[in-house]
Amino acid sequence: MHDTTMLLIEVGALLLGLSMLARVGRRIGMSPIPLYLLIGLIFGHGGLVPLDASEEFFEIGAEIGVILLLVMLGLEYSASELITSIRKSARSGVIDALFNALPGAAFALLLGWGPVSAVALAGVTWISSSGVIAKVLNDLGRLGNRETPVIISILVIEDLAMAFYLPVLSTLVIGAGLVEGAVTLAIAVGAVLIILFLALRHGRAISRLFSPKDAESLLLGVLGLTMLVAGVAEQVNVSAAVGAFLVGIAISGQIAHQATQLLSPLRDLFAAAFFVFFGLATDPADMVPVLLPALALVVVTSATKIATGYIAAKRAGIGVPGRWRTGFGLTPRGEFSIVIASLAVGSGVEPRLAPLATAYVLITVIAGPLLTRIPDSERFKAAVRRRTAAARVPVGTP
């Protein structure tokens, strides 16, 4: 059968199946993300029925999905709100790095993998998944919550930190010289600063490129600009997600509102492709030997992420329920963790790092959306109320 015919059959069957799963998930009050991942595992490498013709389609769709998730997240906030939020959350960003990178580094050293693997695993456990978290926040209707800017600030600080971290890791794994590594880092930092400057100073001019009266032109223009900037950012060793997010905050006013409405169906389509591809690219057999270590790492670093979010929200003056929503909402890891692991393994660093990172990410991506719903449960709310009431009772009161 012709390759194009098989591509249409596989993609059509998968999309139809995802539609049914999404409907079932929402009917039982569950995010469809874990279901998308499981479908990917079933039909991916080492799965029950491997799909070869559509893998490249989902790989490209996954890249677009992350970009769309991040640009729409950026559309929710203005550039000034972002800068204010980052300034307020700078200390929380430092706490986030210390709480979540150090356990990964210590774990690698305990396994005897060496210092370069320790730096790589530190990144795997440090960076939360912007794509997964953006999808979960949208699914749960939390984009307008008071704690959401705190979550976004931490995610943006992490993504911006990748502009520094990835060149450093690349230099370590390939054994590049000091001068070469410094040049790569300088280019990456300069690109981030230029994009951020353009977003802050010329955001209104960028918005005037598009007309709110022409929906087709607006859709094509915003999508084209987002992918262009994301591609340029990736070319200079900056995350495409950072570029897409900065495009989102550069667009403001009525244009931002209409762009959100127009891009929403595309985001849902390609976000589903992102999660399916994540599963397609994973061989379940490789994860079996490292499941227990990965699970132990998940338990430790989920606790540290929850603590990070709780502290950050408390510093921002968010109430106790919002603090817990912030902490649980940050637990999923995802796209960056896999990129970091593949970069290290592809350069000859510890081969067990890849399956460990994959198992780790899959567990957090499946458990994360479920954990994020915990603060909304009546039992949890009642426990928070009891604890708050007990804390208000003066010591010694009968």
What does this structure look like?
- The protein is built from 18 helices and no strands.
- With 398 residues, the protein is mainly alpha-helical.
- α3 (55-75) crosses α6 and α15 (320-329) packs antiparallel against α17.
- The termini are far apart.
- 45% of the residues are buried.
Structure in a nutshell:
With 398 residues, the protein is mainly α.
| Gyration radius over CA | 21 Å
* Overall spatial form: globular
From the N-terminal CA to the C-terminal CA, the straight-line distance is 81 Å
SSE-based structural type: mainly alpha
Strand content: under 5%
Please give the share of residues in helix. Answer: over 70%
Provide the low-confidence segments as ranges.
Answer: none
Largest sheet: none
Overall average residue pLDDT: 81
The secondary-structure element order is HHHHHHHHHHHHHHHHHH
The helix tally amounts to 18
The strand count comes to 0
Question: Helix and strand layout, with pairings?
Answer:
Elements (H helix, E strand, L loop, with lengths): L2 H25 L5 H11 L11 H21 L3 H32 L4 H12 L3 H10 L8 H27 L3 H24 L1 H5 L7 H21 L4 H11 L2 H28 L3 H4 L3 H25 L4 H10 L5 H12 L6 H20 L5 H15 L6
Helix pairs in contact: 1-2, 2-12, 2-17, 3-6, 3-10, 3-11, 3-12, 4-5, 4-7, 4-14, 5-7, 5-16, 7-8, 8-11, 10-11, 10-12, 14-15, 14-17, 15-17, 16-17
Keywords:
globular; mainly alpha; 398 residues; 18 helices; single chain
